[in-house]
Design a protein that fits this description.
Helices cover 17% and strands 20% of the residues. The chain is of the alpha+beta class. Strands 1-6-3-5-4-7 form a 6-stranded mixed beta barrel. Bound molecules: 2-acetamido-2-deoxy-beta-D-glucopyranose (2 copies). The site of one 2-acetamido-2-deoxy-beta-D-glucopyranose has 9 residues, from loops.
Length: 241
């Protein structure tokens, strides 16, 4: 009798763990893979994969950008200047942020460099990042929407509101009226989860992601493999195969 009770308890635990949503993740044969480092940013600027002259070689659509409200599609004004420059009107859309899919998997967006240079030919690919260290067992599937020359080889600069504006002082200050250094510090951004309350409502969940799913671990190392982009990510950027 005791034995039956025990196996029922195990069955219940098993059912619970498999009841989480588990989307199919499809690795790309011969795709990019390796070990990498992460940082984080949110400079409010239109991401570099939003310019069609940058990504036209791959016949992909540019990443969708938004007007100053962070919601209205501004991609229609093709190649509008980024709000990070004088007279710019295109900003990062506030919904291009991370969200939790299940307790071990999240989806989101990232800037990246694979070569240490500006890898615009990698715009809109997707990679599955497997965190190392304290976050081992958790994975973050990101679409690459941005790139940049200050990035190192295999560096993923994760797009997280309140993650720091870096060297771009004009984006968040013109879009949301922050000081030039944005929310928190220019590199790293806010320090405490409560500071996410300072951000516009649309960006607060994306800010808390770092403190909740990522357990406030600072720039964890990762291993990565290239995977097919989930429809949910492509729907938010309009970019991808
Ligand atoms: C979350 O989804 C991924 C992808 O399907 C799956 O491998 C993982 O087991 C899921 N996590 C849990 C806790 O169910
Ligand atoms: C945004 O505008 C572009 C250009 O007109 C269009 O291709 C894209 O589908 C639009 N995105 C949405 C979500 O409506």
């Amino acid at each position: 009798m005791k034995l039956i009770v025990l196996s029922l308890a195990i069955l219940a635990a098993f059912d619970y763990s498999t009841s989480e949503y588990s989307p199919t993740i499809i690795p790309i044969n011969g795709g990019r893979e390796g070990d990498g480092i992460t940082t984080r940013y949110w400079d409010c600027c239109a991401p570099s994969c939003a310019w069609d002259q940058i990504i036209h070689t791959k016949n992909r659509k540019p990443v969708q950008t938004c007007k100053i409200d962070g919601r209205t599609n501004s991609t229609v004004e093709q190649n509008a200047q980024s709000g990070c420059y004088d007279g710019g009107v295109a900003y990062m859309c506030s919904n291009q942020v991370a969200w939790v899919v299940n307790s071990t998997l999240a989806y989101g967006f990232s800037a990246a460099s694979f070569t240490g240079g500006v890898d615009t030919d990698q715009c809109c690919i997707c990679v599955l990042l497997s965190f190392k260290g304290q976050l081992t067992g958790k994975k973050f599937l990101v679409q690459i929407t941005n790139t940049g020359s200050p990035l190192a080889v295999n560096q993923f600069d994760l797009a997280m509101p309140g993650g720091g504006v870096g060297i771009f002082e004009k984006g968040c200050s013109s879009q949301w009226g922050t000081p030039p250094w944005g929310w928190g510090r220019p590199v790293g951004g806010v320090e405490f989860e409560e500071e996410c309350n300072q951000l516009p409502a649309d960006l607060q969940e994306g800010c808390r992601f770092r403190f909740q799913f990522m357990e406030n671990v600072d720039n964890p190392d990762v291993s990565f493999i290239e995977v097919q982009c989930p429809a949910e990510l492509k729907a938010l950027t309009g970019c991808g195969d």
